[in-house]
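Let's practice the habit of predicting before peeking. Look at the sequence and jot down your guess about where helices and strands might fall. Then scroll down.
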Amino acid sequence: KNESISLELNDGPIRVDIESLETGILVRMFQRKPQFLSRHDSKIIADIFNLKQTDFIDEVPIQTVSTGTAMLMVPLKSKAALRNVKMNVDLYRNYREKSDFFSPHFFCLSGETKDASTFARHLGTPPDTLEDAFTGSATGCMGAFLWKYGLMTENKFIAEQGHWMSRPGRASVEAVGEFSDLHSVIVSGTAVTVV
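Done guessing? Here is the structure:
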C-alpha cells in the first residue's frame, strides 16, 4: 500500500510519501524551498562546542538553513573534529536564545561506509535528547547547504548519522534545482514502525 500524507510542522505541512516495498517501507520527505538565514561567528561556535576555528571548512559559512525547520549547519573538515564536538550547555543555551535556529547539525564530507558522502552528529539541549541518531529535517537542510556552496558535485548523495551511537542511519538526499535557485530537498530512507 502506497500513500501520501502531510507532516505538520510549526510553519505548515510538508508532503511525505510512504511506499511499501518487498524489502520494507520507503519514506520520502519533500522539504520546502531552502531559506539561508543568519551566518554565525566561527569563534563563538568553536567555544560553545569544544572546537578550534581550524576545524571548520575554509571559505564556507556556519549558517542557519531552513527547509521547514531552521537548523544550524556546521561543516567540519574531519571526523576527528566531529568526534570532539561537545556542548557547553550554559554557553549554548544563552546563544540559542538570541539566535534563529532550533538545533545544531555538525557534519563532514565522508561517510562511515564507502558509498556515503557525509557523516553527521545532531545535538539536543539537556534535559532533552542529548544526541539524535538520525535527523531527517536537518539532513535536508544539510543537503541544501552542501549544494548551494558547491561541496557536492552531484545533487544526490547518501547521508549517514548515528553509527557512533550504535544506531546507524542512512538516507538518500536529493537537492532539486540549481545552485542559485533550489526548489526543494527530498530525504528518503527505509523505515520501521516503532509505535
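How did you do? The radius of gyration is 16 Å.
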